[in-house]
Amino acid sequence: MTTRDDTPKDDAPKTAGPACPICGKPPAPAYAPFCSKRCADVDLQRWLSGRYAIPGREEDALGQDDGSREE
Ligand SMILES: [Zn+2]
Question: Could you tell me which Pfam families the record lists for this protein (predicted)?
Answer without folding.
Answer: YacG
